[in-house]
């Protein structure tokens, strides 16, 4: 059967969509989704229907589903604002509402006007977690390896950047010698997580690795040796460590993939990956480059929740480091963050972005609430943990702030934002008047990132309070290099303390360091 609507022809036998006689490129999964919506146009199709028919009941995030819907709309010249052909029915599902004429497959379609330009949709990467191999020689230990694998799968599903294959599919390869490239092709994924568990007496060794199935290469590997004092505690600790480590590795791999594409073929996903690679570098030039890439991604897809969330966070991070004016960017950032939450209210990135806006606009209670919501949705989200630590410190809860920063560091010891977490921990120690601890943590932050404004701020105020004039002078000089507009007035008016005493303590540190 073939479906004709507007100047489009959707041919189920040829698996082809044409517009004015020209083929429109579509990913197979997007084609299946569009064909199903058109065929079922007499009714509202629920999310469960789509997951059952298109994803065969695999675990699918809302962002992945929305990505495919948006891709289908784009292929038809539709979008989420007008919903001319594919309409979203709030809390119910989706319905194809265009006028459709059905034809037998052999019927020729009438001549149509010149084709609209074809657009290639952004495609999120898929990931499968295989059952970890039991290396203990004891069949009774199978449960432990399976439990680790299942927990990693569940943790990755909460990150919502990837399509995660359900256990019932990925565990079918257990005990079989199958090449990862074949597994990837059969499951429709780019990345494979595999590992092993070796348990002896009261110790366990767990190895895990992330593979790029398209190249056959290893992107990341780690080994964990633990005492089995508490089996479940060990299982949770290692699961969290693996899940937190995988996300930045996939972002890096996807960024590398995007740089191999011609500039004209970049889609919204590619642009987002490039933007993240600039964001993690934490320099003013990279900050501006990231913003430009994110704006291009949103121009392609105005309802791209993750790009909107990262853009909002980017704006607010620029404010905190003195690279952007709060009054100028806060309205834009808040609009982007709220749009991200509307796109996917269960996306931890969206809530973290909104929390960062509330933080910079002195709504600390709202900021803490949003960061807590982000961490409830994804407990392994180290960046949200770091933001939460920062908000706690400005709310006057320095002990809790230090602990939250330490959790961020433990969660992701190779995180691109590790310097920021050390700087936040250092500021928490400064507020407790533990200046030597603050200096040590600030130096660790600067060791990771030589241009980190926050690290130099903590170093300068802590050195000022200890009377180390040489260190204070050096730190202040580096701070002026990274933030030329730094002044007592900027500090007093731009940073969102809840307590006047904390603000005055910080200002006094800068005065003693020599800032005017």
From TrEMBL:
Q: Does the keyword Iron apply?
A: no
DNA-binding region positions on the chain: 1-98
The residue ranges of the OmpR/PhoB-type domain are 1-98
What is the superkingdom listed in this entry's lineage?
Bacteria
Supply the PROSITE patterns for this chain: OMPR_PHOB, TPR
- Keyword entries, A-Z: DNA-binding, Repeat, TPR repeat
Q: Return the TPR repeat spans.
A: 348-381
Could you provide one GO biological process annotation from this protein's UniProt record? regulation of DNA-templated transcription
Q: Which molecular function term from Gene Ontology is one that the record holds?
A: DNA binding
Is-annotated flag, keyword DNA-binding? yes
Q: What is this protein called?
A: Tetratricopeptide repeat protein
Which organism encodes this protein? Bradyrhizobium betae
């Amino acid at each position: 059967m073939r479906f004709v609507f507007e100047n489009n022809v959707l041919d189920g036998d040829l698996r082809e969509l044409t517009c004015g006689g020209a083929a429109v490129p579509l990913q197979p999964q997007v084609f299946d989704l569009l064909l199903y919506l058109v065929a079922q146009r007499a009714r509202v199709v629920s999310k469960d229907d789509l997951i059952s028919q298109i994803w065969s009941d695999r675990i699918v995030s809302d962002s992945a589903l929305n990505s495919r819907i948006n891709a289908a709309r784009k292929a038809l010249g539709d979008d989420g604002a007008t919903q001319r052909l594919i309409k979203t029915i709030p809390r119910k599902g989706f319905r194809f509402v265009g006028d459709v004429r059905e034809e037998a497959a052999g019927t020729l379609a009438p001549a149509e006007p010149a084709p609209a330009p074809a657009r290639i949709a952004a495609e999120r990467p898929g990931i499968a977690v295989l059952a970890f191999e039991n290396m203990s020689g004891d069949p009774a230990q199978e449960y432990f390896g399976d439990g680790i694998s299942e927990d990693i799968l569940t943790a990755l599903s909460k990150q919502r950047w990837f399509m995660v294959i359900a256990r019932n599919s990925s565990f079918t390869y257990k005990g079989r010698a199958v090449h990862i490239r074949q597994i990837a092709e059969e499951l429709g994924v780019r990345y494979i997580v595999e590992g092993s568990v070796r348990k002896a007496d009261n110790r366990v060794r767990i190895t895990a690795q992330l593979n790029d199935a398209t190249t056959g290469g290893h992107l990341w590997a780690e080994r964990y040796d633990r005492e089995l004092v508490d089996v479940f505690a060990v299982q949770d600790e290692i699961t969290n460590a693996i899940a937190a480590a995988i996300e930045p590795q996939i972002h890096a791999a996807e960024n590398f993939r995007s740089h191999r594409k011609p500039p004209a073929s970049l889609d919204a996903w590619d642009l987002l990956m490039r933007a993240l690679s600039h964001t993690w570098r934490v320099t003013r030039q990279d900050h501006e480059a990231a913003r430009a890439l994110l704006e291009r991604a949103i121009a392609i897809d105005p309802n791209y929740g993750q790009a909107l969330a990262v853009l909002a966070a980017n704006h607010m991070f620029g404010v905190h480091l003195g690279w952007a004016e709060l009054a100028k960017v806060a309205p834009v950032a808040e609009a982007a963050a709220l749009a991200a939450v509307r796109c996917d209210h269960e996306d931890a990135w969206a809530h973290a972005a909104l929390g960062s806006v509330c933080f910079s606009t002195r709504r600390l209670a709202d900021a803490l609430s949003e960061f807590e919501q982000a961490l409830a949705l994804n407990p392994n989200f180290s960046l949200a943990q770091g933001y939460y630590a920062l908000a706690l410190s400005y709310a006057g809860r320095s002990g809790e702030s230090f602990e939250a920063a330490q959790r961020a560091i433990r969660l992701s010891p190779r995180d691109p934002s590790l310097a920021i977490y050390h700087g936040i921990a250092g500021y928490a120690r400064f507020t407790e008047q533990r200046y030597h601890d603050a200096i040590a943590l600030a130096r660790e932050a600067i060791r990771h990132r030589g241009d980190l404004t926050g690290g130099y701020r903590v170093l300068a105020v802590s050195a000022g309070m200890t009377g180390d004039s040489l260190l204070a002078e050096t730190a202040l000089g580096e701070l002026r290099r990274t933030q030329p507009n730094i002044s007592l007035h900027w500090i007093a008016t731009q940073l969102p303390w809840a307590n006047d005493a904390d603000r005055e303590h910080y200002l006094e540190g800068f005065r003693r360091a020599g800032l005017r």
